[in-house]
Design a protein that fits this description.
This protein has 13 helices and 12 strands. By secondary structure, the chain is α/β, with parallel strands linked by helices. β5, α4 and β6 form a beta-alpha-beta unit.
Length: about 300
């Protein structure tokens, strides 16, 4: 049987494409935009809150929806029925970042046709990302391709880790995943920082991204700060920077005084637990200037705060 896949998760869409099975995709989420060719696929979900506002406004809307037990996303039943998927991929890792399993189950309950196989990904650490790739490959029927892809990604990360300098005192790195209120990047990002030669602060590998205070950020006083808001491009992040730079604590931070603050594309890289976690680690290595490789991602994946 030839599968018909709807992916409601950008990282899952990238996984399917990396397995050489992009031609099996028949629908996508409103956020799936890589590879670029998936943009022609029908959109099967949409946000139910305004995502065009500031960090503070988005956070306020999200908190209000969750408090009222309302979903942040809507799965569109009409394309779901019309596209007749055999496989539907979603996630259970975060109700805020993407369509949840609960949203999907509610939408499927409205259908009278055959119900597709639902695969819910739940990555918290790199090992979970590898497992999710294997699970996607298995349900598609391409288990060997999944095994080969995971081996290649692991090898690339091992090679990156082998190229970075290993000073006695690793530079400390604070990765900012949300600006107002402040949140640092947890889950798999601390592992990427370590692979790239840094020491993550104010977070723990394999645990959800934590909210922090400005006092926390000041006390940690990381050598480097990388601003990578969830779902934000570099240009979108620039629009929010005054929320950081006008805070009384900002100029007291060591990373600020030594011009070691950088902006990274959180949308395309760090918040997508799929094949491009390798590029995310490369970006951190380039920022820390501890990789022998040319800074291939500078400008597109990251840039200094003072740039532009």
């Amino acid at each position: 049987m030839r599968h018909r896949i709807i992916s409601l998760l950008p990282s899952a869409t990238e996984i399917v494409a990396s397995l050489g099975c992009e031609d099996l995709l028949v629908g996508r989420s409103h956020e799936c935009d890589f590879p670029e060719s998936v943009g022609q696929l029908p959109v099967c979900c949409e946000p139910q809150i305004d995502v065009s506002g500031s960090s503070h406004e988005i956070d306020k809307n999200v908190r209000s929806s969750l408090r009222d037990a309302l979903s942040i996303y809507r799965v569109l039943s009409e394309p779901l029925r019309r596209l007749a998927p055999t496989i539907l991929i979603t996630q259970t890792q975060c109700d805020v970042c993407a369509v949840s399993l609960h949203d999907v189950e509610n939408a499927l309950g409205e259908l009278v046709e055959s119900i597709p196989t639902v695969l819910a990904l739940a990555p918290m650490a790199l090992v979970d990302i590898w497992d999710d790739i294997l699970r996607v490959a298995r349900v598609i029927g391409e288990e060997q391709r999944g095994t080969d892809l995971v081996a290649r990604l692991q090898r690339q990360l091992d090679e990156l880790g082998a190229t970075v300098n290993k000073p006695k005192a690793r530079p400390t790195v604070a990765c900012i995943e949300w600006i107002d209120p402040l949140m640092t990047a947890g889950n798999w990002t601390p592992e990427l920082v370590k692979i790239a030669g840094g020491e993550p602060v104010l977070c723990e590998s394999g645990k959800h991204s934590p909210w922090i205070s400005w006092q926390d950020l000041r006390q940690a006083d990381a050598d480097y700060i990388i601003v990578m808001p969830c779902g934000f491009s570099i240009e979108r992040t620039k629009q929010e920077l005054t929320l950081l730079t006008t805070n009384p604590y900002w100029d007291q931070l060591s990373a600020v005084r030594h011009r070691r603050v950088f902006i990274a594309d959180g949308n395309q890289y760090f918040n997508r637990p799929g094949p491009r976690v390798v590029e995310s680690a490369q970006i951190i290595a380039e920022i820390l200037d501890q990789s022998d490789a040319t800074a291939l991602h500078q400008g597109g994946g990251w840039q200094p705060l003072s740039s532009g």
